[in-house]
Design goal:
single chain, three-stranded antiparallel sheet, globular
Length: 369
Amino acid sequence: MFSFRLEETDNRARTGTITTPHGIIETPIFMPVGTVGSVKTISPQELDDMGAQIILGNTYHLHLRPGDEIVAKFGGLAKFNSWHKPTLTDSGGFQVFSLAEMNKITDDGVHFRSHLDGSRLFLNPERSIEIQQNIGADIMMAFDECVSLPAEKEYVRKSVERTYRWAVRSRAAKTNPHQALFGIIQGGTDHDLRKISAEQITSIDFDGFAIGGLSVGEEIPLMYETTSYTTEYMPKDKPRYLMGVGTPQDLLHGIKYGVDMFDCVMPTRNARNAMLFTSTGKLHIKNKQWELSDEPVDAECSCYTCRNFSRGYLRHLHKAGEYLGLRLNSIHNLHFYLSLVKRARNAIKLGVYDNFMKETLDKMSQGGL
């Protein structure tokens, strides 16, 4: 029911296909984030139209509302939200650990309070897998500990050991053969700890592997360096997923280092704050200079927003507080990300990825307005 096929390589950059019960995913791919089962302001049909192949749901949030048992009664997330392509759920670990003042970490699991009503909750590997199986995602994630950076090396070392123990328990808890399970490599930005974590996690029979614990406070060059050497310790015959990253520039660097899958809330979150990604850099649509502009957001973009609306109109929607503006901005940003990884796939197949990456980054560096 789940498989990965490596297809083309261009130095370390690579293309492949992931087969799941709900369809095939071409990699490298960007996954729009649907935290509570929906990508904010965007319908499943619109996601399909813009080329989305897989979306991400959040275990923690779906467990709190509507409740994973309710999702299960509807036949799983695909039937509940009418997204009939593949889905991935994270383990809930990042959200739990981000509630730093509300949690208590033990070797058994994490005690924490709901951010909704303050009720006491507990999450451990077994419970995380149970919730994810109820949600019914094609790809589940092992429960891990995500450490905010910077952090003391000794704490990161203990976290790596705990993540390994939890990975073993996560794998043992999986009972649904139709769902894949990925392990997560931790270790902060310490090369030795990343190597240890990679060796530990890849020794377990997971269907794929993720790089976790980045984009959590470290400098960008250090994130790139860590990604580069971590992928060297990851199997070539299984998918590689860089979690929670990031900007268009981050995606291009990750692809260069052999990453297959990415997710980030940035396209939709920035869209709701009137910041749009373009081929020449960021564009702040709320700026007064666009008041009379009849230009599209990006003349090189073929999305619904750019084909039909001007910068001046989008600025008007933002200033008027119209929800349509949030939707049109989100459509553009998501299309931009999905188009970027599609172009990257094509460049890898042609053996020109390095040139494509350089030209794309150079153009983006012209600066936004």
